[in-house]
């Protein structure tokens, strides 16, 4: 696996600098469990790829797991077996090629997974006999980890996510803002703490510390402080030093920032991921409001392929994507995914030169509203077609404008209308985290254009069934559509009915790109 090679290279580089073995283990071991759970869950997620594996490999996998079930007195479902089969195929290929691996946390595996390690030793003997390879101790460590994880049919159960605390000056500023965000999202997550203007900062910190210590068991995945200004922002370092809980702080918080933080925390995003996404939102807002002229030079399109899985799986991924991409217009960029923060930094730097159309790989990452396609979607013919359209297609604005020029009789400048609509629609997609296919975007553009023309003609509009219930459920999304289309209403001296706003919101929600293989929680590494 390329990840093994990268870990091994990292260990070698650090060893050359004189870092001790214990320090190396502490440096790397913290990511191993999180990575491994992600790796197994992603491998196991779908059954459409059994044809990729030879029958002998399936027979061997079932033989190994039947033995493990008896020895460990536990059941392993088919998805767990499939995940191990893919891993085993890559392992055998690597060993035959003379590429052994290093397990960065082998001592802890032997210490904490004693039963599994003993069974893995026996299973390795079976593999050696049937495949004519020598299984090293490091690989036995990974087999032990496979035996300790059961992949569930219903998806990974939710665990405690990142805790969000809103800290602000004023009698009710923090709690009021939090309540508004909670109501918009329909969640009870988050905790608000108000700092009266006559309160000493030491007292505010004491109250926060009491809250943290009282809920320490629920803060294993980190704490995010959302503050308004001043010394409250320094509490993050103090909390970390005093409790050891990973804590980050974001200042100049608005209701929208609280909404975004709660939304991402509720779906299981990591502390670093939430922090980076919100900080990127700040940068985007500054860029959008700075009125800097946009360069006429279009960025070259690119698709990023993450190389975090086995070499064999990664090669198959690349081979599947290459034929559907016009490499004259779209570049395939292959990147390793060892650490999420480093990966995101690389994505940020690439975005200065490329328009990244999609990220494909086995480790799911939701970043910058870039569509993600799992390895399994790449091997699904229908989803591969969707990927091809996302990468290659553009909304054919010239054709749409030409076809509507003589059709929209009440709109004086069809081209101007459609360009304004496209800008508004792109902004709505970004803010709603609802990317749609180019063909769907084109359809929505045409729909709104006809809607505007019809309203100007005085034509009747449709009625949205159960409008109050829909608006209540999707208040935030509906408000985003309404707000972004307000300039259009002013430009054409008309008003879009609430029912039509609801229809537009529904179109975006029902057509947004999403993986059919997603888990109930995103796992960060």
Give an overview of the whole structure.
This protein is an alpha/beta fold and 525 residues long. The chain has 22 helices and eight strands. The protein has helices spanning 2-16, 21-44, 55-72, 78-96, 106-112, 114-131, 137-148, 173-185, 201-214, 235-243, 255-266, 271-289, 311-321, 340-350, 375-378, 381-392, 397-404, 414-432, 438-457, 467-473, 475-492, 498-511; strands at residues 163-169, 191-195, 223-227, 247-250, 300-306, 330-335, 354-361, 372-374. The strands form two sheets. A four-stranded parallel beta sheet has the order 2-1-3-4, with helices on both faces. Helix 3 runs antiparallel to helix 6 (114-131), helix 8 packs across helix 11 (255-266) and helix 21 (475-492) crosses helix 22. The longest helix has 24 residues, at 21-44. The chain is globular, with a radius of gyration of 26 Å. The model is unreliable at 1-7, 19-32, 151-159, 290-296, 308-312 and 516-525 (pLDDT under 50).
């Amino acid at each position: 696996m390329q990840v093994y090679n990268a870990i091994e290279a990292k260990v070698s580089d650090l060893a050359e600098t004189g870092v001790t073995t214990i320090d190396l283990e502490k440096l790397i071991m913290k990511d191993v469990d999180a990575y491994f759970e992600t790796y197994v869950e992603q491998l196991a997620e779908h059954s459409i790829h059994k044809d990729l594996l030879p029958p002998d490999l399936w027979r061997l996998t079932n033989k190994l797991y039947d033995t493990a079930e008896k020895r460990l007195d536990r059941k392993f479902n088919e998805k767990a077996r499939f995940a191990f089969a893919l891993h085993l195929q890559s392992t055998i290929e690597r060993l035959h090629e003379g590429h052994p691996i290093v397990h960065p946390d082998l001592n802890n595996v032997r210490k904490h997974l004693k039963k599994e390690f003993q069974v893995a030793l026996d299973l390795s003997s079976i593999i050696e006999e049937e495949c004519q390879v020598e299984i090293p101790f490091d690989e036995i460590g990974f087999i032990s980890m496979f035996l300790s994880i059961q992949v569930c049919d219903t998806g990974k159960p939710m665990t405690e996510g990142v805790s969000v605390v809103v800290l602000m000056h004023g009698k009710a500023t923090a709690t009021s803002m939090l309540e508004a965000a909670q109501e918009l999202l329909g969640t009870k997550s988050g905790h608000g703490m108000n700092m009266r203007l006559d309160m000493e900062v030491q007292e505010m910190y004491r109250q926060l510390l009491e809250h943290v210590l009282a809920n320490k068991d629920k803060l294993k995945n980190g704490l995010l402080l959302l503050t308004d200004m001043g010394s409250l922002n320094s509490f993050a370092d103090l909390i970390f030093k005093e409790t050891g809980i990973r804590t980050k702080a974001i200042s100049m918080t608005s209701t929208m920032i609280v909404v975004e933080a709660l939304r991402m925390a509720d779906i299981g995003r990591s502390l670093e991921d939430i922090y980076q996404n919100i900080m990127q939102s700040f940068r985007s807002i500054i860029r959008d409001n700075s009125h800097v002229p946009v360069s006429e030079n279009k960025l070259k399109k690119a698709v990023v392929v993450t190389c975090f899985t086995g070499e064999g799986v990664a090669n198959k991924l690349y081979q599947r994507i290459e034929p559907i991409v016009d490499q004259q217009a779209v570049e395939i960029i292959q990147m390793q995914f060892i650490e999420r923060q480093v990966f995101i930094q690389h994505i940020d730097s690439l975005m200065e030169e490329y328009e990244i159309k999609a990220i494909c790989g086995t480790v799911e990452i939701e970043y910058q509203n870039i569509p993600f396609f799992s390895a399994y979607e790449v091997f699904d013919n229908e989803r591969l077609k969707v990927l091809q359209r996302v990468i290659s297609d553009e909304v054919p604005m010239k054709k749409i404008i030409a076809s509507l020029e003589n059709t929209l009789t009440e709109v004086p400048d069809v081209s101007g209308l459609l360009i304004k609509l496209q800008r508004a629609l792109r902004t709505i997609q970004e803010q709603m985290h609802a990317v749609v296919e180019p063909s769907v975007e084109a359809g929505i553009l045409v729909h709104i254009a006809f809607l505007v023309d019809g309203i100007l003609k005085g034509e009747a509009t449709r009625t949205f069934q159960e409008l109050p219930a829909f608006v209540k459920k999707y208040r935030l999304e509906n408000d985003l559509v309404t707000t972004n289309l307000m300039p259009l209403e002013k430009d054409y001296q008309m008003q879009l009915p609430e029912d039509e706003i609801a229809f537009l919101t529904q179109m975006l929600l029902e057509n947004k790109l999403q993986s059919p293989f997603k888990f109930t929680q995103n796992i960060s590494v």
